[in-house]
Write a structure and sequence with these properties.
This protein is an alpha+beta fold. The chain has one domain: Glutaredoxin, CATH 3.40.30.10. It is about 40% helix and about 20% strand. The protein is built from 6 helices and 9 strands.
């Protein structure tokens, strides 16, 4: 038989555990609801929600793209550069290939080095084709393989808040989109 004090302690423990679980639960519209495991340009296992708690600029690309994908990388870099240094440190960039058959870890690493992408802020990642399709679906990113091995694809930078919700998106690839920069400012000011 439990004493009244023991019963009260159990109830308080249950309430505390419930509140702790609620605090850790992801919002229903979070991209991070997808439990995707990726491999980064260094060959390290990372998760889609690896930067949870921070704003993330995310997009999808492929390394052999000669036109749009380099512009997408430049737009992400320009967006970072438009931020004050203290804010820049708090924003991550995640680029996921939709061509995992050809985009090996070595190719991703080569691109990161060629483009001088700082690995503390930039993650180029790959995963299996089925997970690529799931990620593209939750991001509302479209791509289609062409017979010649190239792709038709969306060209967007997507801003995720710290909980993985889509906070903004832009298809402007010439410089930093002022609306995207402002959305990042708002997210960082809120935390």
């Amino acid at each position: 038989m439990c004493t009244r004090g023991e019963v009260m302690k159990r109830h308080l423990l249950w309430v505390w555990l419930w509140l702790a679980g609620a605090a850790l639960a992801l919002p229903g519209d979070s991209v991070y609801q997808l439990d995707a495991r990726l491999t980064n340009q260094r060959g390290q296992a990372v998760k889609l929600d690896g930067a949870r708690g921070q704003p993330v600029l995310v997009s999808m690309f492929y390394t052999s793209c000669q036109f749009v994908c380099p512009m997408l990388i430049d737009a992400a870099r320009d967006t970072q550069a438009a931020l004050p240094a203290a804010e820049r440190e708090r924003v991550k960039v995640l680029l996921i290939t939709f061509d995992p058959t050809r985009d090996t870890q070595a190719k991703l690493d080569g691109m990161a080095q060629e483009r001088r992408l700082d690995a503390t802020h930039w993650t180029l990642a790959r995963t299996d084709p089925a997970t690529v399709r799931k990620i593209a679906a939750v991001l509302k990113f479209q791509y289609r393989a062409l017979p010649d091995g190239e792709f038709n694809h969306s060209a967007e930078l997507i801003l995720l808040d710290g909980e993985g919700r889509i906070a903004a998106r832009t298809s402007m690839l010439a410089g930093a989109d002022a609306r995207m920069v402002e959305a990042i400012h708002r997210l960082l000011a809120a935390h």
